Amino acid sequence: MNMSYDINIFKRLFARNCEAGRIIKELAYNFLAENHRLGATKCRYFYGLFLKKESYGLPAGTLVAVAGFSGSRIWRKGDSTVHSYEWVRYASLHGFGVNGGMGKLLNAFIDEVHPDDIMSYADASWSNGDVYRKLGFTEEASKTFPDGKVSLKFRLKLR
Predict the structure, then answer these.
(1) Which pTM value belongs to this model?
(2) Given a cut of 70, is residue 143 above it in pLDDT?
(3) What is the CA radius of gyration of the chain?
(4) What is the pLDDT averaged over residues 85-101?
(5) pLDDT band at 3, cuts 50/70/90?
(6) What's the number of CA atoms in the CB half-sphere (13 Å) around residue 106?
(7) What is the 3-state secondary structure (H, E, C) of 12-47?
(8) Residue-wise over 139-154: b if at least 16 C-beta within 10 A, else e?
């Protein structure tokens, strides 16, 4: 079954009208449980986008998007050590899309943690991965599961 969606059905918010910052696990878990199709999951770092001013009846300070990242996975590559992280979750408030939201949350994570690289997966039935490409990620692989679902693997190398 194709889970594609029409992005025009969402009300559009803009990341430039939001503040990004680190948030506590409980706030992130509640938001993801309500707004991500797979729900919440364990992450080491959570970041949220909060409206700076009222929009579509949502008051200033409303949490409108959340991203979750894993802890560091460390390996040796030649003479250097690589600190790699996984972007595990991203969701916006149900019924809303946040233009620039993924990029703003990604940048907040990069500014605080300084990763060497970040990888993530996209469910091909839900997304073709274009948003990752726009953020500078490159597609590394795809995997087809026995049920026919396809997952795309992306990586952003920062160092």
Answers:
(1) 0.90
(2) yes
(3) 16
(4) 96
(5) very low
(6) 23
(7) EEEHHHEEEEECCHHHHHHHHHHHCCCCCCCCCEEE
(8) eeeeeeeeeeeeebbb
What whole-number distance in Å separates Cα of residue 93 and Cα of residue 9? 13
Q: Is the pLDDT of residue 108 over 70?
A: yes
Residue type, 126: W
Where helices occur in 14-159 by DSSP H, the ranges are 25-35, 101-113, 130-134
The rounded distance, in Å, linking the Cα atoms of 95 and 145 is: 30
Separation of alpha carbons 97 and 143, rounded Å: 27
- Nearest-CA neighbor of 73 among 155, 1, 132, 13? 155
Rounded Cα distance, 61 and 54, in Å: 8
- 137, pLDDT greater than 70: yes
Per-residue pLDDT for 2 more than 90?
A: no
